[in-house]
Amino acid sequence: MIKVYLIAAISADGFIARNSHQKIDWTSKEDKKFFKDMTKKSGVMVMGGNTYRTFEEPLPGRRHIVYTKGSVADKAFEKTTLPPKELVRQLENEGYDEVAIIGGGTMYSMFLGAGVVTD
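and the corresponding structure tokens:
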């Protein structure tokens, strides 16, 4: 069975980011290492449009899947509108053992609500 988990850097006052276009430079070196290790291990990251817009470029060694109604400018980022259960089933059929949901809040709620988060 495929493992689906959430990764979020949350401030002490409960915020994920100050605004939707904030670059991820406010987390610790240890947080960044944890994110890098976990997402490289899973091999696939799923994100919403706001999180996608925080990326200056794709991260090496990982598949990038974006939920958005808009377009994605970089071909290294794949666009999807599949329901979470279907996306997870597709990724499992493609041989993935893990999926990292990396943000934002709407994505966390969507995947939790769909009952596909395992860890």
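(Above: one complete record from the training split.) Strands lie at 3-6, 44-48, 63-67, 77-80, 98-103.
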